[in-house]
Amino acid sequence: MSPSIRPLVAGNWKMNGLSADLEELKAMATGFEEACGGAVDGLICTPATLIERAARTVEGQGLSVGGEDCHAKESGAHTGDVSAEMIADCGASHIIVGHSERRTDHGESSQTVAEKAKAVWRGGLVAIICVGETEAQRKAGETLEVLDEQIAGSVPGNATADNMVVAYEPVWAIGTGLTPTVDDVAEAHAHIRARLVERLGEHGEAVRILYGGSVKPSNAAELMAVDNVNGALIGGASLKAQDFLGIAATYRG
Ligand SMILES: O=C[C@H](O)COP(=O)(O)O
Question: Active site located where (predicted)?
Answer without folding.
Answer: 99, 169
